[in-house]
Write a structure and sequence with these properties.
477 residues, mainly alpha, two-stranded antiparallel ribbon, 20 helices, 4 strands, 3% strand, globular
């Protein structure tokens, strides 16, 4: 029965969606100067919303079903967009979809895979005390390194160290929550390596070091959070029954050679931002040679790290390929379904979301709308959507590189707003950023009783983060 109902739903959706795209095609043909983004209906973005809601809700309400079937869900939503577009627009649609994959999806996944593989071979070993001072130090270190090895990499390196240090404590859920706040999100605000949204901006032409301008924002948020965490942790620590004996062991890092591979990743990304070697065509799509070289180096760094790291170290890190596999599959669907939404946003006030675009005027508007979506959906596509919205609003019709240059030189505060909103607000829920759920899952496997989805929000993120984010608005945007 379930299969019949699902098949009927797919068929109905495909017919309606195909009909709507056909009408848009006819309307576009009536005026040669009209772009597809100006005529596509708003509901052509339904598959994009559908896949994001699927990612948000299924793991909460049907976790076992989701674990088995998420590739099918991603494929369904992706095909729901790609098939009608290809049938109606043919070569143009194929070019658009291939361009999205070659320019954005593949480099995005290669970077995540390389960081995930390299950091998975770095293991911090030793007996730590789990005192408030040590916990603050670990969170501060994680916040500091997250921008240079990614929030995913920093989280995977440090979360098990934090868990081992606090294993003897009864009250430790708050430690993991603040870890998610700082290491898994806020710490990634400074470079394109830090968080996926900023890397997408880099791929679209934002200079690598431009995001360092956000250091005051990061300090404004992270310093009060570290201070508040220390006060809370001291309170809980005083209630704990201290271990009768304190075994001390030298702390050491195993797999330290992987830091060389990490430097190789940073160097490759930097090189692609300053070196311009011309273009080649891949399946008819122009691609920058320096970007291809960067991706090749990232793959070599990941392979080198995996081959040269002892299996014992990865076993002690409980390293598996499932997290990056899940991200790759789900984002394949996301990057496909986002094509109509991006086309509409790029049309600016001429598109079907013209009324909404007109209401977004100030940097604070963009900061909050990008952040709000990043809280409950995924911050990477949320950033991408409003990045394109800004291009459509201020630089409609200009080539991408010219529009991005204009955004940086003339409307920089708007770009700062969506960058900060995407990264900071990803900490508001478990589903705001990929590392959040990974850290929660690892912590629960270690026996930590983590707050529920809404418990996390109402006990921690809303009373702690949201007031801070309002202050960021007043001071910076």
């Amino acid at each position: 029965m379930f299969r019949r109902a699902a098949t009927s739903l797919v068929s109905t959706f495909a017919v309606v969606f195909f009909h709507g795209i056909s009408l848009a095609h006819a309307a576009a043909g009536a005026a040669e100067s009209t772009t597809i983004g100006e005529v596509l209906p708003v509901w052509s973005a339904i598959p994009f919303a559908g896949i994001l809601l699927s990612i948000a809700l299924f793991p909460l309400f049907a976790p076992h079903w989701w674990h088995r079937h998420f590739p099918k869900v991603s494929a369904f939503w992706g095909i729901a967009v790609a098939a009608p577009l290809i049938v109606v627009y043919r070569g143009n649609a194929v070019t658009e979809l291939l361009g999205t994959y070659i320019h954005e999806y593949i480099p995005f996944i290669i970077l995540l895979w390389a960081l995930f593989t390299v950091t998975g071979g770095i293991h911090v070993k030793g007996k730590l005390s789990g005192s408030p001072a040590l916990n603050v130090a670990l969170l501060a270190i994680g916040t500091g390194i997250a921008s240079f090895m990614g929030t995913t990499g920093a989280s995977m390196i440090l979360i098990r160290t934090v868990l081992r240090a606090n294993a003897w404590r009864k009250n430790k859920a708050h430690v993991i929550v603040f870890f998610i706040f700082l290491v898994s999100n806020i710490g990634g605000l400074l470079t394109p390596l830090g968080d996926p949204p900023l890397f997408l901006g880099f791929l679209l032409g934002v200079p690598f070091f431009w995001t360092l301008k956000l250091l005051p924002v990061m300090a404004f948020v992270s310093v009060p959070l570290l201070a508040l965490f220390f006060l809370i942790d001291v309170r809980y620590y005083r209630r704990e029954e201290k271990p009768k004996t304190t075994e001390r062991a030298r702390v050491r890092i195993e797999g330290v050679h992987n830091l060389l591979f990490l430097l190789g990743i940073v160097g490759a990304v930097l090189l692609s931002g300053v070196w311009h070697a011309g273009t080649v065509r891949i399946l008819g799509i122009p691609a920058e040679i320096q970007d291809l070289v960067r991706d090749a180096v990232l793959v070599l760094m990941g392979i080198g790290a995996y081959v040269t790291t002892k299996k014992r170290i990865r076993d002690e890190n409980e390293f598996t390929w499932f997290p990056i596999k899940e991200v790759a599959i789900l984002f394949a669907g996301i990057f496909t379904t986002i094509v109509p939404a991006l086309a509409i946003l790029q049309a600016g006030e001429k598109g079907q979301l013209g009324v909404l675009m007109k209401t977004l005027e100030t940097p604070s508007h963009y900061y909050w709308i990008t952040g709000s979506l990043s809280s409950f959906l995924d911050n990477a596509p949320s950033y991408l959507a409003f990045f394109n919205s800004l291009l459509g609003k201020f630089f409609t019709g200009l080539p991408l590189r010219e529009g991005v240059h204009g955004l940086i030189t003339e409307k920089a505060v708007y770009l700062e707003a969506i960058s900060a909103g995407a990264v900071l607000f990803g900490a508001n829920t478990y589903i705001g950023n990929a590392p959040n759920f990974m850290v929660k899952s690892i912590s629960e496997e270690a026996g930590v009783r983590m707050p529920s989805f809404f418990g996390y929000m109402f006990k921690y993120s809303i009373p702690i983060l949201v007031p801070l984010f309002f202050l960021v608005t007043l001071v910076f945007f």
